[in-house]
Specification:
Order of helices and strands: HEEEEHHEEHEHEHEH
CATH superfamily: Nucleoside phosphorylase domain
Number of strands: 9
CATH topology: Rossmann fold
Structural class: alpha/beta
Bound molecules: hypoxanthine
Oligomer: single chain
CATH architecture: 3-Layer(aba) Sandwich
Distance between the termini: 33 Å
Strand order of the largest sheet: 5-8-7-6-9
């Protein structure tokens, strides 16, 4: 696996020839952020050696290198989910590659189900913490010391300074943002009302099927991580709203201008 990661990083490095300031991963329905990048190189996943392939509608499959607000960004349009059948190694493969490319800052986005009763559809939530309920851990197995330690500190999974910068950006633009705890489940089913009740009881504000494996692997390598979620549907023990993938994409679309504003401002102002 290490050889493959190096091979892929070398391939990308030979094309972009620079170290990006940020890696950005776009979640379900959030692909439009890619239009904001002044693209210098666009690589389709199939042309990148060893790169996994996506299988879900609404998830693209492109790595875009270019400028966003004058900063060098490497953007992943289309991520890999555990529920697709990928191993955790595959799900987190791009994050390992980003690290070997010298990238220090990681911005993630996703669509989530709102658990917190104060949340509304198309609200933005900055992750302040998470609860990992995925059935497999991405760091299980032999530790690669060159990446990071066997036992990883997770006391600050999401970088406080990045959160502050994003909060300020949102306030400056009069965009409402929450801060919440994201619970990661494997999916692909959305949650039952009883499951929503459980997730609320354990301290979750929102639930989703991605992100946490990538965050763990990024923290293993001491990358600074930021994640913003769009609430695309709501659930709870006493609410029986139905939800479809289409509704998730529609809500993500509605929130897109705000996501774009916050992410651009974060990229512009961080460090
Ligand atoms: N649950 C899990 N993942 C999701 C949801 C949800 O309700 N909405 C968007 N992604």
């Amino acid at each position: 696996m290490l050889e493959k990661i190096k091979q892929t990083a070398d391939f990308i490095h030979n094309i972009i020839k620079e170290t990006p300031d940020f890696a950005i991963v776009l979640g379900s329905g959030l692909g439009k952020l890619q239009d904001e990048v002044e693209a210098i190189h666009v690589l389709d996943y199939p042309e990148i050696p060893n790169f996994p392939q996506t299988t879900v509608a609404g998830h693209g499959g492109k790595l875009i290198y270019g400028l966003l607000e004058g900063k060098k960004v490497l953007m992943m349009s289309g991520r890999f989910h555990y529920y697709e059948g990928h191993s955790m190694e595959t799900v987190t493969f791009p994050i390992r590659v980003f690290h070997l490319l010298g990238i220090k800052n990681l911005i993630l986005s996703n669509a989530c189900g709102g658990i917190n009763p104060a949340y509304r559809i198309a609200d933005l939530v900055i992750l302040k913490d998470h609860i990992n309920m995925m059935p497999e851990h991405p760091l299980r197995g032999k530790n690669i010391e060159s990446f990071g330690p066997r036992f990883v500190d997770m006391s600050e999974p999401y970088n406080k300074k990045m959160i502050e910068t994003a909060e300020k950006a949102a306030a400056d633009h009069h965009i409402k943002v929450h801060q919440g705890v994201y619970v990661a489940l494997q999916g692909p089913t959305f949650e039952t009302p009883a499951e929503y009740g459980m997730l609320k009881a354990i301290g979750g504000d929102m639930v989703g099927m991605s992100t946490v494996p990538e965050v763990i692997v990024a923290r293993h390598m001491s990358m600074d991580v930021f994640c913003i979620s769009v609430v695309t549907d709501l659930g709870g023990p006493d609410i029986a709203f139905s939800v479809s993938h289409e509704e998730v994409l529609n809500a993500a679309n509605k929130a897109m201008p705000n996501v774009i504003t916050v992410v651009k401002s974060l990229v512009r102002n961080y460090q």
